[in-house]
Amino acid sequence: MHESRQSETHAKSGRGGDLARFFGTWLRHPIKMGAVAPSSARYCATMVGAATTQIDGPILELGPGLGVVTRALLNAGVAPERITSIEYDAEFARTLRERFPAINVIQGDGFDLDATLGDGGATKFAAILFAIPIVNMEQSERQALFSRYFRRLRPGGNLTQLSYLWKPPVKSVAGVFDVSSTPIVWDNIPPARVWIYSQAQAYHNAGAVH
Ligand SMILES: C[S@@+](CC[C@H](N)C(=O)[O-])C[C@H]1O[C@@H](n2cnc3c(N)ncnc32)[C@H](O)[C@@H]1O
């Protein structure tokens, strides 16, 4: 059996059930959800393809929802033991634990990693895959948040973001990270790019993430 199948159980509903559940949660918490439907398989695979999962070390997923990106990570051959997924919604987190028993699912706030991981900032990740809505945050707050995430990345590690905005949701921060994107993935609802935040050369050279 393929590794991703071994590490995933078939708990609960299929895609139709997930769509209904996702949409129902969006109706109650539109700002926290940020999207009416789970990301398409192609969009998730694009994100995983852009993430620096080839670097040794743990992978951090923020805002996994019902696990479409988690599944794409497993399908790409990432070992489940490497993945930590932080989801705010308690029901979603419970489903994720049922579906992906070998993954470290934490129910908590992905904006406050020090509190949620409780590791004093010690864990450094090979890649961070980010899908939490940040539309209600000022640009300066977004830049500060992503700069904090960069302190959690290993040398060469990147942060990838799912967002249907057509301009970079978070602008580059000089000396910390630069932003680029993939082409638009048209089969997502709505069509969207994956935004890629890479360590600025100066930051990398300074060894700030060691
Ligand atoms: C746009 S959905 C993305 C779900 C999934 N990754 C996908 O691509 O379909 C955003 C997810 O982020 C979660 N979320 C919102 N605020 C959060 C927070 N502060 N920490 C962790 N997860 C959060 C929501 O509950 C929701 O599951």
Which strand order spans the largest sheet, edge to edge or round the barrel? 3-2-1-4-5-7-6
State the helicity in percent bands: 25-40%
Stretches with pLDDT under 50, minimum 5 residues = none
Bound molecules: S-adenosylmethionine
CATH homologous superfamily title: Vaccinia Virus protein VP39
Largest sheet, if any?
A: 7 strands, mixed
Instruction: Estimate the mean pLDDT confidence.
Output: 90
Radius of gyration: 16 Å
Count of DSSP helices?
9
Helices, strands, pairings?
Blueprint: H1 3-6, H2 15-28, H3 30-33, H4 41-50, E1 59-62, H5 68-75, E2 83-87, H6 90-99, E3 104-107, H7 113-117, E4 125-130, H8 139-150, E5 153-163, E6 177-181, E7 193-199, H9 201-206
Parallel strand pairs: 1-2, 1-4, 2-3, 4-5
Antiparallel strand pairs: 5-7, 6-7
Helix pairs in contact: 4-5
S-adenosylmethionine binds next to helix 3, helix 5 and strand 2.
